[in-house]
Fold this sequence. Notes:
The complex is a heterodimer of chains A (115) and B (248). Chain A has one domain. Chain A has 2 helices and 6 strands; from the N terminus they run βββββαβα. Chain A has helices at 64-69, 93-96, and strands at residues 2-10, 20-30, 33-38, 49-50, 57-58, 81-87. In chain A, strand 4 and strand 5 form a beta hairpin. With 248 residues, chain B is α+β, with helices and mostly antiparallel strands. At the A-B interface, strand 4, strand 6 and helix 2 of A face helix 1, strand 1, strand 2, helix 3 and strand 4 of B.
Amino acid sequence: MIELELRTPQAGVAASHEAIWEPVARLRVEGHVHEVSGEQRLIDFSMPVLSLRTGQQIRFEDDPEEWARNLPTIFHAPDLVVVVIEDDNPIPENLLSLDAEREPIRLRDRIGAWT
Amino acid sequence: MSLQDRVDELAAQQGSTEEDHLLHAQIVRYERHGTAHPGVNETYYVVLDDGGEAFHKPFSGVAVPTAQHYGHHPDEVPMHECGAWRLAHRLGPAYAEIVAPCVLRAHQGEAGALSARQFGLPLTDEPLTRVPDRARAAAFFDSLIAQQDRHAGNYRWDGDAEKLGLIDHGFAFAGPGQYVNQSFFVAWRWARDEQALIDADQQALRNLLESRDLHGLGRFLLPEEAEALAARADLMLERSSILAVGEF
């Protein structure tokens, strides 16, 4: 079983500029049974997703739970983020914590300092 | 050429009407969504002092397994975000107006891609009927940059302004055989048998190839990415057609 929420930021009042993360849709999948609440059109079951478990593409009809589990990988911009609320078969941590050799970089910021 | 050299080159090219506020406005809000998925790139919601909203994707926050599945080193992901915008900007207004402006900028010591928020709805096919010329331009652009993940959640549609805004170009500039998830506009244009280039597309490709350095991208993309970009432009001109979905 997996349950997800899609959230979007709403800019706060000018004084605080605090963002409020507003839930806009919720998806629960258990086996081949699914339930959507909120803005149903935001859950597009025709979209393929990349499986972080296998590196292969998954379609909803192939494995509904695993499709939902990997849905966060296709929402790359945080004006619509997918948050996992509950997951009884999460992707193993070792598959999510791969590392790569990184080069340190410096970039001049807006006031001219190096960071 | 080191990554630092390429970053310096990209930074030196930045600056335009669309980019200047992203480069110079003060950041007054910088917020990560606390429970984001561990396999997803770390991104920050940004509010600028001019009221603009943007998203910052630091180099250090790129999710390594996802980048690797797409066939990229994580450090290339922010470079691609900025590279896609710079290419759109240099190709001309027909392309710049549909791509989210994006710059390389550091905040609190973290360098990354800062991309202007595109407002409107995801997951709607309205642009295909309301602004088909822009949808065709999107297909041309995605074909040229080898966009690997243009699903219907990777653009925004503002129906009141009739504005199409393409977002998320980190997984692009792919080479042959690299993973493709979806290519919404390219598939649509092929399905309508409208893959043939229009005159403006052809002129944009000729201008790109005649520029000394692929409109500057040859100076900061990886050499193999720049070569692949030129090869796609050549092939598109030779066929007078956009490329097929996943044809990198």
